[in-house]
Design a protein that fits this description.
Number of domains: 1
Strand order of the largest sheet: 1-2-3-5-6-7-4
CATH topology: Thiol Ester Dehydrase, Chain A
Radius of gyration: 16 Å
Largest sheet: 7 strands, antiparallel
Oligomer: single chain
CATH superfamily: Hotdog Thioesterase
CATH class: Alpha Beta
CATH architecture: Roll
Number of helices: 3
Helix content: 10-25%
Number of strands: 7
Length: 169
């Protein structure tokens, strides 16, 4: 399996800790998708109900419920949609960082740009993330957020910087 091969979620315990105790280390070149949701524990993504379906350096898929993530008009909140898109793109970038720079590498977001085309009203929305550019220093992604009827709700472009591990001081 190569680093860009998508990994689908098996039926393993998502709450099991990573073997070395560092939660993000499960997102190395061959991410353990069965534990990807564990990485989200205690984060905004967990509070939004985001779940990881597929993850690789070149993208992936995550879902989020509309219920609980609405604005006062009972429509999916644009900020929640952007958080979903940024989460999948950032996790894919982290896998890319570990692929090109090895253990200890990090990925940080540098830019997010979203266009909302229509409103989500019910059920789950799915973020489909695909790489636009996979380099050694920068990774950029396009995320399409769709409703259960596959209608396009939002398009989000996310750019990240890939950071090599810092030498021990």
């Amino acid at each position: 399996m190569t680093s860009s091969d998508p990994v689908s979620a098996p039926s393993a315990d998502p709450a099991a800790p990573a073997a070395d105790g560092a939660p993000l280390d499960i997102l190395g070149p061959d991410p353990d998708i069965s534990r990807a949701d564990a990485v989200l524990q205690g984060t905004l993504a967990e509070r939004l109900g985001i779940r990881c379906l597929r993850l690789a350096a070149d993208g992936g898929e995550m879902t989020m419920p509309v219920e609980g993530n609405t604005q006062p008009a009972a429509l999916l909140h644009g900020g929640a949609t952007i958080a979903l898109a940024e989460t999948i793109a950032s996790m894919a970038a982290y896998v890319q960082a570990r692929t090109v720079h090895g253990a200890g590498a990090q990925a940080v977001g540098t830019s997010v740009s979203a266009t909302h085309h229509r409103s989500g009203r019910r059920g789950l929305v799915t973020a489909h993330c695909s790489a636009l550019h996979l380099g050694r220093q920068v990774a950029s992604y396009l995320v399409e957020v769709r409703d259960e009827d596959e209608r396009l709700l939002s398009t989000v472009q996310v750019s990240t910087m890939l950071l090599a591990p810092r030498p021990a001081s």
